[in-house]
Design a protein that fits this description.
By secondary structure, the chain is of the alpha+beta class. Among the domains are: 238 residues, DNA ligase/mRNA capping enzyme (D-amino Acid Aminotransferase, Chain A, domain 1, 2-Layer Sandwich); 72 residues, DNA polymerase, domain 1, CATH 1.10.150; 69 residues, DNA polymerase, domain 1, CATH 1.10.150.20; 77 residues, BRCT domain (Rossmann fold). Helix content is 33%, strand content 20%. It contains 23 helices and 25 strands. The strands form 7 sheets. The chain has a 5-stranded mixed β-sheet with strand order 2-14-13-3-12. Strand 4 and strand 5 form a beta hairpin. Helix 15 packs across helix 16 and helix 16 packs parallel to helix 21. The protein is elongated and about 110 Å long.
């Protein structure tokens, strides 16, 4: 079942251009403040490309925005502290061909032997740290590359600790060191836990946590950070450092040749690929989405030169994104094996983490609502390793025109029956829709009456692949059930023994209930009883032609076809039921079955029951009463009408009793009815 795209209202290219500028500016500001990212890097780059394309085509309509000129540090584009020398950005290499061309330029500039160094491109906050006479006096953000913001006051807080950036050095030295403030995975977990305990919302990721923490004027929880030095001036003291990996050395001052590896043309690609895999492992502590390749040697760097925004002797290489941005074309609903309803996004195909993604999970309807996902939206998709792709969020700010919210059908895609939408996970309770729904339905009181086997156990049986059809249920034993994974443990001996005993008792349930338990479309309890009364055994049901089912009251051509196809499809299951000891007998209510067949007291009568039964029928529920009525040749009904032949009243004054009295329908007590059907 798939949604359709709703109509949108288009806007002019000029209005879209202005909207794109606002979106990009807001996204950059949110990124700088450490708030939840409004847009991914890929989506941001796509926005800038769209803005640039409009400006190329319409030079007379260009607005001032500064999106292409600022050298942003991700923490602030403002400030009032001038850098001793510009803190530049890095040019991006789009592939290995471009890196190969870069290495040729390094060779042309005099590079020999080892041509470049390789280091991680850390996803943190770039800063310059100034020391005077051994004391840290300023921490300055990159800002626009010329002027940055002073964060020194924030770092004076006792609640913010930063490894590798001491406040004082035991030496009378004055220098500036540049590097990156980052948060390791462990630091992020601890800091986030402290933040949540203080009653504040959790940060989305280490990058947001870093930016938000270093710029907070006050905080009432502890935060841990790490400083990684990139550029240490000659003569500055080298301090003790801790090696986090072969590709990253953590510490205040790190000796350049010890912190980085040298590579030539032949080994560069191998090293980049190797680190690309290593950075995904649990052993790698810091967020990174790429590597930085630097030319070796001051003379080579001088010949290559420096541009207005970036040095020409370095390149940044980003790995294939584990996140992609694409369009949500439609949403499909499906029933899983346990009966849970899944929502799947059909996407415009896009390359994510090295493979083309055209479908991704949407979790549940709450996720769709909470993220305001609408057909036609630009969405972010995440995929890592072999994990199923999933939609992370949408970008409503990129929505062009008015788009109606997504509203799913609330009926089972298979049966058309209403879904159970009471919980976060919607479910189909139609037995024909899934194995889980079938097992839960079959175990219910009015079918096989297996006490203790509710939704939780039914779902666990299917998820653990203990059962794949009804027959598998009867093949279970106490040992199987005892070890059934459920919740955070096992089902256990006591519950297993109880359910195993109930399953064994269910093997003696009458044919009508076993037919019902098969979950054939359009059958249910009423037709289970009618099928059992007419055919009397499975052999007759399995050899019946479609037209043979038309002899049953209430069965038309469509239902006859479904019954015939349903029994044929379950022939193997029915055979296994017999092998497993399920008796499937037709329930008789008198000792002489032949006499009963020749003289059924309710033959041709339509009977309605109201209220609780007493006397010989005491304790019978509505399903059991219906079974008794139809075994005696009658037809059970839930409502009184002119066609009703008899009302069995367990109470006076009900609406059924009142209507039957008004229509002159015969009314009997439970005791009188018991005598009629031979149960007195």
């Amino acid at each position: 079942m798939t949604s359709t795209t709703t109509a949108t209202t288009s806007i002019s290219p000029a209005d879209q251009y202005r909207a794109d500028i606002e979106t990009a500016t807001n996204a950059a500001a949110a990124y700088a403040a450490g708030e939840e990212e409004l847009i991914t890097d890929d989506a941001y780059d796509a926005l800038l490309e769209r803005i640039a394309a409009f400006e190329t085509a319409h030079p007379d309509q260009i607005s001032e925005h500064g999106l292409f000129t600022a050298v942003s540090d991700g923490a602030s584009s403002g400030g009032d502290i001038k850098h001793s020398s510009p803190m530049l950005s890095l040019e991006k290499a789009t592939g290995f061909a471009e890196l190969g061309a870069f290495l040729e330029q390094v060779v042309a500039a005099g590079g020999t032997g080892d041509l470049v160094t390789l280091e991680p491109k850390l996803d943190g906050i770039a800063v310059a740290v100034r020391y005077e006479h051994g004391r840290r006096v300023q921490i300055i953000t990159r800002g626009d590359g010329v002027i940055g913001e002073d964060l020194s006051a924030q770092f004076s807080s006792e609640r913010l600790s930063i490894a590798g950036m001491p406040a004082d050095i035991n030496a009378d030295v004055t220098f500036e060191v540049r590097g990156e403030i980052v948060m390791s995975t462990e630091q992020f977990q601890r800091s986030n836990a402290n933040r949540v305990a203080a009653g504040k919302p959790a940060f989305a990721n280490p990058r947001n946590a870093t930016a938000g923490s270093v710029r907070a004027a006050t905080r009432d929880y502890d935060v841990e950070l790490t400083f990684v030095a990139h550029s240490v001036p000659e003569g500055a003291p080298l301090l003790t450092f801790t090696s986090a990996s072969d590709f990253l050395t953590v510490g205040t001052m790190v000796e350049q040749d010890r912190a980085r590896f040298h590579f030539g043309i032949e080994s560069l690609r191998t090293a980049i690929d190797a680190f690309g895999e290593y950075r995904k492992s649990d052993d790698y502590p810091f967020p990174t989405d790429g590597v930085v390749i630097n030319a070796i040697g001051s003379e080579v760097r001088a010949r290559l030169g420096t541009g207005s925004r970036a040095p020409k002797w370095a390149k940044a290489y980003k790995y294939t994104a584990e996140r992609g941005v694409t369009t949500l074309e439609s949403i499909a609903m499906a029933v899983g094996r346990t009966g849970n309803i899944s929502f799947t996004a059909n996407l415009t195909p896009t390359l994510v983490d090295g493979s083309v993604v055209s479908r991704a999970t949407l979790h549940n309807f709450d996720f769709i609502q909470d993220n305001d996902l609408r057909i036609g939206d630009t969405v972010e998709v995440y995929k890592a390793g072999d994990i199923i792709p999933r939609v992370v969020k949408s970008f409503p700010e990129l929505r062009q025109g008015e788009v109606a919210p997504y509203e799913p059908d609330r009926v089972c895609p298979i049966s058309g029956e209403p879904l159970d939408t009471s919980g976060k996970i919607w479910r189909s309770t139609s037995p024909e829709a899934s194995v889980g729904s079938l097992i839960q339905y079959a175990a219910s009181r009015d079918v096989l009456d297996i006490d203790g086997l509710g939704q939780e156990v039914a779902t666990a049986l299917v998820e653990a692949r203990y059962v794949s059809d009804l027959a598998d249920l009867f093949a279970l034993n106490r040992a199987d059930l005892r070890e059934l994974p459920i919740g955070n443990g096992r089902l256990g001996e006591l519950r297993a023994a109880g359910i195993a005993e109930q399953i064994d008792q269910a093997k003696s349930q009458p044919l009508a209930r076993v037919i019902t338990a098969l979950g054939i479309r359009k059958s249910g309890r009423t037709f289970g009883r009618r099928l059992a009364a007419h055919f009397r055994n499975f052999d007759a049901l399995l050899t019946a032609a479609p037209e043979d089912f038309l002899a049953i009251e209430g069965v038309g051509d469509e239902r006859a076809r479904l019954f015939h196809e349903g029994f044929q499809a379950r022939a193997a299951v029915i055979a296994r039921l017999g092998e497993l000891g399920v008796t499937t007998k037709v329930e008789e209510t008198v000792d002489d079955a032949e006499a009963w067949a020749n003289a059924k007291p309710l033959d041709g009568m339509k009977v309605v029951v109201t209220g609780a039964m007493t006397g010989p029928l005491d304790g019978l529920n509505r399903t059991e009463m219906n079974e008794l009525i139809e075994a005696a040749g009658g037809a059970s009904s839930s409502s009184v009408s002119k066609a009703t032949s008899l009302l069995v009243r367990g109470e006076d004054g009900s609406s059924k009793f009142t209507k039957a009295t008004a229509l002159g329908i015969r009314i009997v007590t439970p005791e009188e009815f018991a005598e009629m059907v031979g149960r007195s």
